[in-house]
Structures are given as C-alpha cells and as structure tokens.
C-alpha cells in the first residue's frame, strides 16, 4: 500500500537551511552542518557518492538512511530543489545529481514556469515537470509508484505545502544537535501533527535526534 | 564550584506554554501536557507532591528529575512564576507552593514593583524580592548558594533574558513529544548555544527528549 513519505533536516531551534542559496551554493549555507551525520553514513556514501569501499557509519543514522532509499516508487520535489530557480533559462539543466541520479524512479518537479519535456536519465530516473495542484501531482506520482511509496523530497516550501495540506503519512525528521538561528522555520503555522500522527523519538550515536510521525 | 543551571520544558515545535495564564490556571494552557512525563516521575511525586509511597516512573526521566533537585543552593525566578502578576495587590501572597515550598533554599524573585519584605517559609525556603539587573541578582544568589549551584527557574521571560545575557552554564531542555503551535517561542533571537556549549541528546522511555547544553 502506497504511503506518502518525507524526510527533512532541521536544527534544534526549528530552522531549516535555505539562506544564501546560489548556483555555486545550491543547498544554501549551513546545509553541510545540518546533514553531516547523514552524509557520513555508509548507505549515503554508497548510494549518493558511489563509494563502494564500505566506509561510513553503520549505526542508527545508517539504519534510517537505508530506510530512506528503500521502497520508493516515485518522488516529488519543488523547482528550487531541482535547481530551476538557479538556472531558469537553461533548457538543458538536468538537476544537481549528475547523469545517474540516486532516485531510480520517476521524479515529479513542481514548477509554474513554461512546460518542459520530461528528461530520462540513467539508472531509472526520469524527471517530469508539472504545474498543477499538488494533490493532482501526488495522484499521478501515486499511480506511477505502482504500489511502492511516494517520497516528497523538498525543498522546504514544497515540504510545508504538503504538510499543511495533510498529505504526508510518514514524516521523518533528522534533528541535528546544532542551532542555526536563521533560515526557514519548519513549524510555522502547521497543523498539530501529534494529533493525527504517532510520534516516535530516537537518538543516534551522532547526537542526531530522529523524530518519526506516522499515521 | 557554583554553576548556573536552568531546566525548561518545550514542545517539538519550539513553543513553550504561556498562553491562557490566570490565577485559576497559573501555569497556563498546555502546561500539563508539556510536563506530563516529568510529573509522572517518582522523584517529582515525592519532592513536590509529598508522595512517599514510591509510586512513579524510575527510568531516564526520573534520573533527570533527581538531578534537578540536587545541589541547588539558591534559586532565581521571574515575578510571573512567583505569581506577582496574578496577585499584584496581595502583600500576603507567598507563591503557589504552599507553606513548605520544594526549593529549600533562598529564592530571588525578580520584580519591578514596590519592594516587599522577604518571606521565610518552612523547609529552608526564603523568598527575596529584587528589582536590580539580573547580573546583580545572580551575583547575590551565587554568594548565597555557598558553593552549590544557582538555578534559574523561569518563567520564559526570565529564562530568555538569562540565555540572551550568556549567564547559563548548564541548560537542560525537556522536549515533550508533542506540538503546541502557540505560545512563546523559546529560540527566537537567542545566541547560538551550540557554539558556546556542548550539546548532548538522550531520549527517555516516555519519548521525552532530554537536551543538555553544558559549558
């Protein structure tokens, strides 16, 4: 049964990192600090960096990272996560992930700009561009997932829109043990997820707090 | 060596509970939900409710509760925590804690209203009222603590003033696995505590996340 999943990085003070984004710094300032424990995992190093040496952490963070990559049949992301805002006039832009993106599934990019043709990539990823309401895009992604899950990848504007609309079944927050003091506040004007979802908390060896909201 | 300590309750979304305070509801709405796991501990039930039956939880939450009551030689709290705002015209007001408050030490109440005489209570607690700068009150409390620690008790305005001034050595946050969606935001415009303090994260059986910031 398809579930709609989302994984987000957030600091102890509730800020996510969207300051200082530019083509040269696509994830913005502080992203490295927010995701440090995650990108140190063996699973991430293997699946995203292509590191086959088996290096990387193998504890609780890695267990969540492995789950992150499992059972996803389609992905949805915002235009900024794909990089459309950074390269608005480049029809050849294919995202930040190289020729073989780690999704291995159809990826629906939300955009309000002119329609673009879909971009098939190596390894099973195809980028599709959609400008309809998120509910419609989700319905299409759900169909494409063929019984597997749909993941909403981000960025934060997209994430908050799905949360506000109550569309997320499983939310996994990686709370880094740092403060940002600036950026986008994840929790502003969101419905009380604890009323609709079961909350689970776990701390990894890195100090990262894993919060899962499941309904 | 005296350390300045503070323990605060906060929800996952960074809100603390100061909505709906009144004389009949002195801690405001949501306080019960925020402190549920803490007031369920054996230590709290014994030290605050006077429950000598040994009932209550005995896990990680209780270990923190026991530490909360140990080694404090003086306490500082804001006027609202003492109840001066709720009972401004009652010179006989002695706080919310009955004849034998659980502090057992001098308690310095910060107030800008007319000076009041100190109030000695049973069990070693004496309430003093001070209108000077927090640094001066802290110096007096430090002296009175006689080598034990000084605890800053709250409420949130007082807590944030001490944090902004960089006066807290040890901050313990009890993050309840709930969302409030309203109230005072703990983290607004505070210095990045992770730059000056070591952060430690631990999850209790109740799902409460214990965050400690130590310098």
UniProtKB/TrEMBL annotation, chains A, B:
InterPro entries: DHFR-like_dom_sf, RibDG_C, Riboflavin_Biosynth_HTPR. This is Deaminase. Residues 4-192 form the Bacterial bifunctional deaminase-reductase C-terminal domain.
């Amino acid at each position: 049964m398809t579930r709609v999943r989302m994984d987000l990085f957030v600091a102890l003070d509730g800020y996510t990192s969207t300051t200082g984004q530019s083509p040269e710094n696509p994830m913005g300032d502080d992203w490295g600090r927010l995701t440090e424990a995650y990108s140190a995992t063996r699973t991430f190093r293997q699946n995203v960096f292509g590191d086959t040496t088996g290096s990387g952490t193998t504890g609780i963070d890695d267990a969540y990272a492995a789950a992150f990559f499992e059972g996803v049949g389609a992905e949805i992301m915002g235009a900024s996560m794909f990089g459309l805002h950074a390269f608005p006039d480049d029809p050849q832009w294919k995202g930040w992930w190289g020729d073989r993106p780690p999704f291995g599934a159809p990826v629906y990019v939300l955009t309000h700009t002119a329609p673009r043709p879909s971009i098939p990539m190596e390894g099973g990823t195809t980028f599709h561009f959609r400008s309809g309401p998120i509910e419609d895009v989700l319905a299409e992604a759900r169909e494409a997932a063929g019984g597997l899950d749909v993941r909403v990848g981000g960025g934060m504007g997209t994430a908050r829109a799905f949360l506000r609309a109550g569309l997320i079944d499983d939310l996994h927050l990686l709370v880094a043990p740092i403060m940002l003091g600036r950026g986008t506040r994840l929790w502003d004007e969101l419905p009380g997820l604890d009323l609709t979802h079961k909350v689970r908390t776990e701390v990894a060896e890195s100090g990262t707090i894993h919060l899962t909201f499941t309904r």
